[in-house]
Amino acid sequence: KQLGLVALFAVAWPLGAVLATVNNCVEIKSDLLRMVRNSKRPIPSREISIGAWFDAMHFLSMLSYVTNLLIFFHTTSYGRSLLNLGIAESYLLVIFIEQMMLALRSAYVSGTSKIPEEIMQARAKNEYTRNLA
């Protein structure tokens, strides 16, 4: 919930990200103290990914492009007065900018590897030595 509010309305209240970070630090510290004093250590389990949360955060980041641009262009006259645009043209500009941002993000994601080459080689070497034993 907090990530969504901060991401979707960052342009409306930029201080929200700072306060959310402070809140998270206090919450982590209080949870740590509660876990240390009131319960035993949880049994760790190895997970491959964060599962459905990745898709939810990905959707929120995509939606935040649109909402922040719409809030900026709807509440300020900066873009319209600078480029002498009407309301309809400014919304078309928002759509264009949003599409360009999504295209740049897609190009970046497709151009970068999720796992670095050195780690892939180390994993292959470990797998090979494990199979020899």
Domain module count: 1
Mean pLDDT: 84
Please give the number of β-strands. 0
Order of helices and strands: HHHHHH
Shape: flat
Low-pLDDT parts are none
Distance between the termini: 48 Å
The largest sheet, given as strand count, sense and whether it forms a barrel, is:
none
Give the C-alpha Rg: 22 Å
**Oligomer status:** single chain
Strand content: under 5%
The structure class reads mainly alpha
User: Helix fraction?
Assistant: over 70%
Organism: Rhodosorus marinus
Pfam family, one: Anoctamin
InterPro entries: Anoctamin (IPR007632), Anoctamin_TM (IPR049452)
Protein name: Anoctamin transmembrane domain-containing protein
Describe the fold and architecture.
InterPro entries: Anoctamin, Anoctamin_TM. Keywords: Membrane, Transmembrane, Transmembrane helix. Residues 2-125 form the Anoctamin transmembrane domain. It is found in: Membrane. This is Anoctamin transmembrane domain-containing protein. By secondary structure, the protein is mostly helical. It has one domain (2-112). Helices cover 77% and strands 0% of the residues. It contains six helices and no strands. Helix 1 (2-8) packs parallel to helix 3 (52-75) and helix 3 (52-75) packs antiparallel against helix 5. The longest helix has 25 residues, at 87-111. The chain is flat and about 70 Å long. The termini are far apart.
